[in-house]
Amino acid sequence: MKDKITLLKIFLLLLITIGLSSGCIGNQNQFANNNDDDANVVKVHTSKPVDQSIANQAKEKVIKEEEISGVKAVNTDKELLLAVKVDQFDRFRLKNIEKKVKSDLEKAYPDYKILVSTDSKMYLELEQLEEKLQKDKIKMKSLKKEFDKIKSLMKEKA
Fold first, then answer.
1. Tens digit of pLDDT for each residue in 6-62?
2. Using the 8-state DSSP alphabet, how is residue 91 labeled?
3. What angle separates helix 94-108 from helix 53-62, to the nearest 10 degrees?
4. Bridge-partner residues for 86, per DSSP?
5. Count of domains in the chain?
6. Are residues 132 and 79 in the same domain?
7. Distance between CA 149 and CA 128 in Å, rounded?
8. Which of 38, 56, 70, 150: disulfide with 43, CB 3.0–4.6 Å?
């Protein structure tokens, strides 16, 4: 009788150990997959309103930073709006990251007025504007209107 109880205890202990270890491994893979998806930079190619090559170059430059996991950017003739998604642990240094990105971009593009934000709402707003530009479903007048709206929101947050 004692042999059956000890055998049952060993079996339960083994089962619990396997269950817990497989749960931890599953979570690690999930986090690894999430980081890979965000690191992709989508280049916006448009023909009608404004050439987005400056925004695309800026995104390529900024995404190389290790603490940044995503970048969205839109430019007009004289201005560049850029929003970055920062890794979770680096969110303690948002202001420093924002200043560093802005100073790097100001050195690279001195002719442009640059606004940088680490706010997730700005990231989503620029993502929507990028999608409209990508699909060529936006005219110059409405681009300027949405651009100014996002710009005023960025200034309000700062």
1. 888 888 888 888 888 877 665 554 444 444 444 566 666 655 557 888 999 999 999
2. G
3. 130
4. 68
5. 2
6. yes
7. 13
8. 56
